[in-house]
Amino acid sequence: MFRFLILLLSIPLFGGEKIKIGCIIPLTGPKAKFGEMDRNAYELALEEIKTPIELIFEDDQGKPKVAMAAAEKLITKDKVLMIIGEYSSSCAFAVARVCELYQVPFLNICGAADKITQQGWRNVFRMNPTASQYPSGFKDFLKEVGKPRSIAIVFENTLFGTSSAQSLKRWCQREGIRVVAYEPYEAGGVDFKPILTKLKAKRPEIIYMISYLMDAILLMRQAKELNLTPKAFVGGGAGFTMPSFLEGAGDACEYVISVTLWSPEAGYPKAKEFYNKYHQRYGSYPDYHGAEAYASLFIVEDAIRRAKELSRDGIREALKQTDLLTPFGPVRFEDYENYTNQNRMKTLLLQVQDGRFRLIWPKEIATNKYIYPFPGWNRD
């Protein structure tokens, strides 16, 4: 049985001395928007937890080498009990290697490349699904609307993008869905028209895109310019669920479907309260990235309270026994298949309708009916 989050809000076990926890996120560079949301969410969680935790933030700038240096500094100089955070898979993998080397627990909240939890590392724990699990909600959705005959997969050639794309491609091949285009690209592209023109000629029923924020915006703007009309544009999470995606893409993102890991409508404890409190404080709404950051501190507090001793070994063993229902969802760190300390969860689907994200899948918790197929660009 899951221990409900409200049980955490009792008197702290430890005195007034603060427990140092390292937190590495991108606060500058191209992924700073994600880091900003994470930091805001951490600050809200710090106000609510009762255990005296001091978060020591480090900026990885979205660069694996910087992330490695930050991890070493936190471990050797700041003497942190454990490290949490990370956004991109490449930085998360770099931090994971350092933490395993020093035998320091690392709670990875977002980096999704499968290989992060496929190394047999006992100090590395991941609360989000693996990249290959991201399309699970989308696959279930296709059983409802009918299996498409063809799909095009466009993805950033990072650890996250490649892991997601490879998994989806294998699944499509098993299901008899023709992959008419498989298009990796370098991050920060300034022109996707050559790729999109190729897709227009192939006429796939589904265009599935795995991109961070700025690329997600540009892909949809240029798809509209070229009048691409598949049955669905589908984002693989990441940039496609950010509030800034709605602002940047404008009406070009209307009816885009995206995988997501979380919704305030999913019914998890404190999820709606977090969603509304974040908006009241910061003037925008969080997506699943913020929910991961917010929930991660409750996971840390839970482990601290259960640890037999307040040491890195004690926290590692406590994390391994985690069984908690958080605002992000249920968290258990399991060993299965070739994964170690990996949480398992189904993904959801959002769709942009009337300029807002609406939860459309699974049906039992959906707030809006999905709109499928894509109705086209001329909707006046």
UniProtKB/TrEMBL annotation:
It comes from the Bacteria. It comes from candidate division WOR-3 bacterium. Keywords: Signal. Pfam families: Peripla_BP_6 (PF13458). Belongs to the leucine-binding protein family. Transmembrane segments: none annotated. Residues 18-355 form the Leucine-binding protein domain. This is ABC transporter substrate-binding protein.
